């Protein structure tokens, strides 16, 4: 299945590519895209191609912060028609709910989950495509855009506590610090932004209930009849819920507004099972965590849903043909306490 996204996710790619010395048309052609495809931000393009485009651009140019540079100049209007409704939400919490509700109209490859605990709110994000290719630049673009969205809605009330990335830190952190204005953590357990929970309830001074109602009616006409894959939505949910220990059929069915039986039946209709999807995501996350040498194997087992280390070892060996310790030794990523 090809996951399609709005070409608007690549807004300002041409400008940033030129700024770092690239030939934008050549980079687009490498992944089967063209400048003409980006003229209409609502044009559908393969999500995997967009992700690969950003990775190629960063590697070719040597600019480790390519995706974040794109996020730096993004406006709320770049989210397309959904921005009409976002602008008039009463609080940030309401705005995040709109992102979840109308995600198919913006970026189907983006998974978002919001959790609140102990006075802290965490907005987790994961870029998911049909393959497990590297997506560092797309992840930084997505989280950078989320940060700008929050700042746009709350203004001076937006004070993030920290931003987390699962990948390694770039050589130069100045851009990250300028854009986010808070601690930026790398080789973290998840990708996302942490902020005071109270920020979710802070009022949006631009909110207009009447305009919000009109915008919602318009978006509902756009969303009607959109064909979506339940298996892909479940896969996205597993990415954000598995490290939290909540990637159960019951939890994900609840998040998607279904009961477990309906979830399982519809997945069967699409030719897959819930356990297959969990295993697929677990394989991808296992390799990411194993490549971060600060995580002991016991912690990785826990993040992947194994409370008993021996069960994790058996699963890992069956999937990768080597024990976790052997795999780490062979891939040059020994544990560093």
UniProtKB/TrEMBL annotation:
Checking SUPFAM superfamilies in the record gives: Homeodomain-like (SSF46689)
Protein name as catalogued: Helix-turn-helix domain-containing protein
Which Gene3D superfamilies did the record assign? Homeodomain-like
Question: Which SMART domains does the record match to this protein?
Answer: HTH_ARAC
Keywords linked to the UniProt accession: DNA-binding, Transcription, Transcription regulation
Source organism (scientific name)? Pseudoduganella rivuli
Q: Does the keyword DNA damage apply?
A: no
Q: Which GO terms describe its cellular component?
A: cytosol
Check the record and name the InterPro entries matching this protein. AraC-type_N (IPR032687), Homeodomain-like_sf (IPR009057), HTH_AraC (IPR018060)
